[in-house]
Amino acid sequence: MRRLLSTSCLLVLFAFTDGASGVSTNTGPKAVKVTYGAYMNGMAIGAITEQFEADGGTYRIVSETRPMGLATFLQRQPLRFFSRGELTREGLRPTQFEGRRNPNDPPQVAADFDWAQGLLQLKYNGKVESMPLTPGAQDRLSVMYQFMFVQPDKTRQVEFWMTNGRKFDLYRYRLNPDVELDTALGRLKTLHFVKQREPGESHAEVWVSTQHQNVPVKVVIVEKDGMRYEQLIHSLEIRD
What is the average pLDDT value for the chain, to the nearest integer? Predict the structure, then answer.
């Protein structure tokens, strides 16, 4: 259950590196509010609310996960994550990422993107770690909304570097275009991404709705021990 709580806010999505193909639209919405349900092996364990706002050349994302059911025995406080950054020709370029349980508490995890110096600084468990910053890198929230501004190339795999405040890794996903999916919003046309993994790694899949500016509508992660985590869309508001 404890691993679930760190997973439920959640689940890994994607963004482009400079080497990946994609075209920036730079005409994404001004605001998005989306709610998801988080599930473990089919059991509801959390409710997720996320808000994206764009103002001129900057963006801000706030995500809050409230535990439900048995999850409240392990974690009563909501989990909150924040991402801030710039809107560029390549889409979202994060400058700061934070995660905390209480608005008045110091961040439990944080990432600072110093694009001028090409450095990424991670802060977690009282540690500070710096490393080279890869062009096109994203954090775990900004990746959720990158496809509103950058269109994927439907003939290629997607590669991206992403940080959750604790680590900075390269991910590869295979794209299956034109996949229909039943959701709380009805039957949708989606882009379906499947993680390319090595033996022993977790399995992951993501669906984004082409009818709703490529907002993610479903995420599935299956851990090595067989535990299945899902994030399913419940409601969506978009303001252009």
Answer: 86
3-state secondary structure of 238: strand
- What pTM value is reported for the model? 0.86
Q: Residue 72: helix, strand or coil by DSSP?
A: helix
Write the single-letter amino acid at 183: T
What per-residue confidence (pLDDT) applies to 154?
61
Q: 6 pLDDT exceeds 60?
A: no
Average pLDDT over residues 31-38: 97
Identify the domain containing residue 141 by its residue range. 2-239
CA distance 49 to 13: 17
- Residue 19 to residue 136: CA distance in whole angstroms: 9
Q: Is the per-residue pLDDT at 17 higher than 50?
A: no
Asked if 219 contacts 206 with a C-beta cutoff of 8 angstroms, the reply is yes
158 close to 175: Cβ distance less than 8 angstroms: yes
Closest listed residue to residue 160, CA positions, set 114, 130, 196 = 196
Q: What is the dihedral of CA 183, 189, 191, 193, to 10 degrees?
A: 40
205: its two tokens: 């899949």
Domain CATH code at residue 211 = 2.40.360
**Beta pairing class for 119-124 and 158-163:** unpaired
Distance CA 130, CA 148 (A): 30
Helix (H, G, I), strand (E, B) or coil at 49: strand
Q: How many domains does the chain have?
A: 1
Say which residue the tokens 């994609």 belong to. 22
3-state secondary structure of 174: strand
DSSP single-letter state for residue 190: E
Is 93 within 8 Å of 85 (Cβ atoms)? yes
